Amino acid sequence: MEHPNLAGQKEAYLASSLKAYRDRTRNFAMMNSIAALLTDEEIANLAAYYAHLKPCK
Ligand code: HEM
């Protein structure tokens, strides 16, 4: 499966997706295990970082 392109995605969407993986309200094994390790602050920082990257197309 391809990874979705995160660059330039909405910050709120990225944060809520990572929280959904952490809470297991959204299920994809690889993402659930990564998100389980993240604090709220780390999720906020990751979402801000990816949201501010220039989309590749
Ligand atoms: C080896 C590492 C990774 C793999 C194999 C992987 C794989 C995937 C896959 C296949 C999906 C789609 C799953 C679904 O439909 O629910 C996904 C979604 C996502 N991943 Fe990852 N991921 C990895 C690392 C990361 C990292 C480091 C981040 C950091 C922020 C991240 C953030 C996200 C987000 C926000 C989504 C939801 C995107 C959307 O709904 O458009 N992933 N990942």
Describe this structure in words.
There is one protein chain. The protein is an all-alpha fold and 57 residues long. The chain has one domain. The protein has 3 helices and no strands. Helix 1 (11-23) crosses helix 2 and helix 1 (11-23) packs antiparallel against helix 3. The longest helix is centred in the first third of the chain and has 13 residues, at 11-23. The radius of gyration is 11 Å and the shape is globular. The mean pLDDT is 96. Protoporphyrin IX containing FE binds next to helix 1, helix 2 and helix 3. Protoporphyrin IX containing FE is lined by residues 1, 3-4, 6, 14, 17-18, 26, 28, 30-31, 34, 46, 50.
The overall strand count is 0
Q: What does the largest sheet look like?
A: none
Helix content: 55-70%
Radius of gyration: 11 Å
Low-confidence stretches: none
| Tally of alpha and pi helices | 3
| Number of discrete domains | 1
State mean pLDDT (0 to 100 scale).
Answer: 96
Distance N terminus to C terminus?
20 Å
Distinct bound molecules:
protoporphyrin IX containing FE
Overall outline: globular
Task: Report strand %.
Answer: under 5%
Spell out the helices and strands N to C.
Answer: HHH
Structure classification? mainly alpha
